[in-house]
Specification:
This protein has 61 residues and is mostly loops. It has one domain. The chain is built from no helices and two strands. The protein has a two-stranded antiparallel ribbon. The chain is globular. The two termini are 17 Å apart. The N terminus is likely disordered.
Length: 61
Amino acid sequence: MTKGCKSDCDKPIKGISCAVKNCQYHDGECKCVAGSIAVGPAGACCSSDTVCATFRRKETQ
């Protein structure tokens, strides 16, 4: 299981890349290992208007 991952999330989501290294679902490379992701808001007009609602800040030890 990926260090910092707190749920059943050890496999990268196919087709999803992630550069947010301080997210607990970041695999240390460029993959997201969350069980699923949520992106919003519904009224977004362009990619810069969107956010990953699944993001959880990685706890430092």
